[in-house]
Amino acid sequence: MPGRVEGKVALVTGGASGIGRACAERLAAEGAKVVVTDVQDEKGEAVAGALPEGLYLRHDVTDEDAWAKVVAATADRFGRLDILVNNAGIGLGGSVLEMSLADFRRQMAVNVEGVFLGVKHGLPLMRKSGDGGSIINMSSVAGLKGAASLAGYCASKGAVRLFTKAVALECAQAQDKVRVNSVHPGIIETPIWDTIIGTGGPGANAAPERSATLDAMAGMTVPLGMKGLPADIADGVLWLASAESRYVTGAELVIDGGFSVR
User: Fold this and answer.
1) Strands 9-13 and 33-38, bridge-based pairing
2) Catalytic: which of 56, 153, 163, 193?
3) What is the pTM of this model?
């Protein structure tokens, strides 16, 4: 069914590449006006420029003033906010004994504080229209189960999972028609893996060594026997953004080829 989010305004953080880019493109293809934010300016401008109605804004999600400005710019340009995809995140692997406190805090700042600030500043604009909306927070299967050498990442994504449920209840109590859900990707082909498994450079685009490593990982650990693609996550985000999921809030949408149930 085309036009599943026709006339809606979406804000996608970390939208310059990977899952964020796929979400921005999928929402736009179904009729949404999309604000793409990131710190990768050239890539972000290219993504937004290719959308029917897109706007790119440079945005450090750990900066509260930046959030206020992004939400204000969204209101100035489009007048409302219906869909917020808190997607921006980083993945830092390594033993808990070797990870520096600075890196642990940086990962928590981007992955958790960025989501908190998105809700804090995006929700008032979403409520203003009176039509409700959908907040979609990107967690991970690492937010559902532990993984060796990913303690910091698991901590951050687990926090997103429970933060989402608490905000969902808060919105339900307020009767503001805003639904809040988390998405939990598994082994998906995105640049975030470069800093988790040490392949390629940060921001690399489907480096051959990363792709081969993920193929091998998925073959051994994913029941469906293959890695996922950003489009697989974007399809789930679209469903949560649309009226088709009108009775879904506080839920975990796991998209992992069965990885988390093995």
Assistant:
1) parallel
2) 153
3) 0.93
Q: What's the CA angle centered on 18, arms 15 and 22, to 5 degrees?
A: 70
pLDDT digit string, tens, across residues 171-195? 999 999 999 999 999 989 887 767 6
| Kind plus residue range of the DSSP H or E element containing 254 | strand 252-255
Q: Burial of 56 by CB count in 10 Å (0-12 exposed, 13-18 middle, 19+ buried)?
A: buried
Please, what is the average pLDDT of the chain?
93
What letter does residue 188 receive in the DSSP assignment? Answer: B
Q: Is residue 199's pLDDT more than 80? A: no
Superfamily name with CATH number, domain 9-186+229-254 = NAD(P)-binding Rossmann-like Domain (3.40.50.720)
| The pLDDT of residue 196 is above 80 | no
Integer Cα distance of 182 and 180 in angstroms: 7
pLDDT at 114 over 70: yes
CB < 8 Å & 24+ apart, contacts of 154-160: 155/108, 156/89, 156/107, 156/108, 156/111, 156/112, 157/111, 157/184, 159/108, 159/111, 159/112, 160/86, 160/111, 160/112, 160/115
CA 25 to chain CA centroid, Å, is 14
> 153 an active-site residue?
yes
Instruction: List the domain boundaries for the chain.
Output: 9-186+229-254, 193-227
For residue 198, the model assigns a pLDDT of 62
How far is Cα of residue 118 from the mean position of the Cα atoms in its chain? Answer: 11
2 pLDDT band, cuts 50/70/90, is low
User: Of 229, 225, 236, 235, nearest to 258 (Cα)?
Assistant: 225
In this predicted structure, what is the pLDDT of residue 207?
Answer: 66
- Burial (Cβ within 10 Å: 0-12, 13-18, ≥19) of residue 220: exposed
